User: What shape does this take?
Amino acid sequence: MSKIGIDIEQKIGKPREYFTHDGVTYDITWESGNELIRHGGPWDRGSADSYYRRGANPHYYNGGSYNSTKVEESKMSPVQIQQYYAGFEHNEQMGDHKEW
Assistant: This one.
């Protein structure tokens, strides 16, 4: 399986970026069409909450942040909640926080 990934990587010339959280590995390569890291999605909102030091509060937006319907944790699937916490933890590990 990993050989296929390496072959694809060599063909497109862009290295993939992965992050593992709670036993799940996420492809977080910044590219158009990566639904995982889309603006307003669970990963993005977790990352943003960490960046702004707001604390973890799982949510996401159906479209872009603040200009579409907000989905609260009670309406999120377990996978979406995991994605939120993975985005939050990834940013925590990167240490990328807003300097006020």
Observations:
- The helical segments are 2-12, 42-51, 78-94.
